[in-house]
Amino acid sequence: MRSVVVTGGTTRLGAAIAEHLETLGWHVIRSSHRNDAGADIVADLSRRGGAEELYAAAVSLLDGKEPDALVNNAALFALDDTDVMTLNYHAPKRLIELMSERRMPGAVVNILDSRILKRAPSTPYEKSKAALMDCTVEYARRYSEVLRINAVAPGPVLAPVDVHEPAGTTPLGRPTPGDVAAAVAFLLDARATSGCIIPVDGGQAV
Question: Which domains does the chain carry?
């Protein structure tokens, strides 16, 4: 059975991705920073050494084997600028570097945000996602011999709790977490695809 680590895989979009991959036969390892989230691994990716701690724990759960795939989903939307960049960019970047040391081919999917595809990033959150987008392409080239690295850029899928967030113009309708999960699953299996960014935004990009 193939194994995949889904960061932030216990809630919201991460949970939908993890559940969908499980239905496809993946052994899903879910991480969270919370002890009460029911995660397979508890690791705080916003602090120094968090990525290394998470990856070592995943290898331990797999009896010394490396995970076959990684979905970098965990993200912060607010709080301190440093925390946002650490969790949204530096941690997934470091996890990719750890994955690149593997002996067998693997796959990575980064979760971005479709807003950075249409305008220059302005908030710390958008800047962190733009940096991760650049990393997706750069590392797809750098580690092409051992990793396929792609990204999914969701549009207005989930609004913040208790906040009204209009979807804007979505010619194809507002996308669902299931739509994002399907795109992630496709990229994990797309053996001839790397350095690709798929918007799942209900057609907003067009």
Answer: 3-200 (3.40.50.720)
